[in-house]
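Hi P.,

Sorry for the delay on this. The queue was packed all week, but I finally got your sequence through. Input first:
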Amino acid sequence: MSDLVPTAEPRPRRRVLAATLAAGIALAITATNLLPGPLDHAAGAGPVPAGTPGVTRYFGRGAYDGIRAAVAATPRSCDLPDDTLAALVMAPIFKEVSAATTPETAPSPMTLSRWDEWTGARSGSNNLNANYGLYPFWDPSTAYSRAYWTPGIGIFQYDSAGVGAPFTAAELMDVQHIAGDVAGGMAGRYCASGGDDYARRAAAWQPWGGLGGIGKSEALFQEMLGLDAPAWSRIGLVDGIENAGGMVARTCVTGGQTVPCWYVDPSRAQGANWWALDDPSGGAPASGEAPLPAPFYVVKRNGFEERHFMAIDTGYPVNIQGRRQLGLNARPRDGQPGSGIQWFEATDLCDTARPEMGCAPAAASVAPPATDAAAPAEDPPAAPVPAGPPPMLRGTPLTIEEMLGSLRLGPEGGEAAPVF
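Then the structure:
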């Protein structure tokens, strides 16, 4: 997740994945041309069970249902059927998160970016240099490296440097929630564009256009809607991958009140979890991989996203809290006042579902949604911050005047694409 094209550092695994995806789509596109449209398909056609012959891509059943629900609720100003919009929304996922050529590699809604490397140059001049701020207390050599703030989250790999800025990690993992934002943007660009059908699709995919992304998305779109098979028959739905991919809605006590919170444990990721297995202890700075975060809690309140790394999960001698003002880059960037993360070596967050944490009674209760892990549509009632600043407040958070895009690095496709 950076605003620069990555250096030519050897990454054999990613090159193999990129080659695999490229080989699959090369059969369907030329180097310069998109495929013709439109496509006709039977009403009511849908994906098939994962074991069905002829399937070429796999997708979680719960994640797919989330996308279809978001698409059905998306207004549009032109003739854009739900099937077409759903395929538009899904196409970039296969190049951003996973090629999904086996049931085990169906895209995971919990996906955390692992390629936000720090360059070794401490600077706010660009996202790569500013990645030092994603480590606790802005210190890449910290002993607490797994209390790491991952900036790219979820099935679409939205990054806080771009369109991911207004959303919490929990909202980005909630496929239905974030697919509503994706579908709305795609529908708007599609309907505003002139030209034929594939020109309109190209407009819809413009934010994912880097490194041949338009052509790749077009080929994947055609694969879903019937280039050489009945519509959706090449998409196999995998049971056991929920809308939130393993994230769990909980109720937490903090500041004397109860608030909705969401628990993210990478070891429970559903779907393609290579990112959670690759160097789970966390990589050293500039090694090529960012650390894998330990389990953490997400809270949204008072205009901030908070992530709480509890000693009971990290094994560290202290609890650690980071918070980012929603709408701003998690990295401390020059000329973007308020960007960056406030770090605290203390938090009183307590999960009421974990007796071992010994939660104290709270003054009021705000229950989390009844879905498997749906992110909140609105902020919960404001919970007061504990009196006085927690000890070891380090780094003055800086806030963006204008949102800047960045290049998003797809971990399994090995491709960089601009964050819209």
